[in-house]
Each structure stands twice: as structure tokens, then as C-alpha cells.
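May I ask you for just one protein sequence along with its C-alpha cells in two labelled lines?

_____
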Amino acid sequence: MAFIFPAPGVAGVEATLRIALPGGATFLNIPAMQDITVNNSNDIFTWTQLDEGSKLNVATTATNSLDMNIVLDQTVFFGTNPSTGTTPTEIGIFGVSKNKVRIAFELYLGDTSAGAAGKTLSGFAYISGLAPTVSADAPVWVSPLTLTVDGDYSVA
């Protein structure tokens, strides 16, 4: 078996997420992910017929998203040039979400027991769901973050 394990803290084999403008060469690495959930939820059309004792179903289009919680890094969250920048690196996660920028993403799931054989999910998405919080019991800013996938995932 080739179980996927993200090996937290081990360079080159941990789960990583990076974003860029579609076709862009400069990626913004999303640091300090606490967790991540990959969603692929097919919608189902259901109907009943008089000659059937059970409902009938047909799978339709899927809703895809990546949901995670991150510890906020000031530069990644707000960018290196938030007032006049145009790339994810310059406007940060907050600017990408606020400006409704469609981004390309690559999620490396982590390595396998075979070594250097991990898979990458990629596609296009919009960032939503930001809700930074801080408290006395958790004195660093953390936020949920959702990548709502525009289309399907690609696997490499």
C-alpha cells in the first residue's frame, strides 16, 4: 500500500498549497495550514415514478472546494504591495478574496511510503470564507479559508 502521509515539518514531503494568477509563473505559498479538507460533492437529481417503489437518482455536476484553517502570516495575508499590486504575492490572500480574483492552485497532498511519489491536485478557484479571529486562549490570528473550485480538479 502507498498511504499518503503529509509528514508535518519534513521539507519536501509535507502537504503544501500554492496559488498564482492563471498562467502566472509566480506562486504564493500558503504557510501555516492547520488542516485541510478536499471536497468533491456530486449533486444528485432525485425523482419518483408511479411504477417504482423507491426514488430514482442521477448524479449531476459536482461542487468542489478546499477548506482549511491557517495561522495568519502578515505578508501572505495582506501582500507585499496591497494598494497597487495585482498578483497574489502583492495583494495577499485578503486582496485575492476581496477583489474576487480567480486563481490557479496546486495542492501537494504529501508523500507516500514509497518516497517522492505524492500526488498534486490543481485547478482554478476563488478564495472565500475568510474570518480571522484571535483570543486570549489562542493569541495568534487564525482564519478559515475556502478555495471554491471553478470547474474540476486535475491530478498529477
About this structure: The first strand starts at residue 4 and ends at 5.
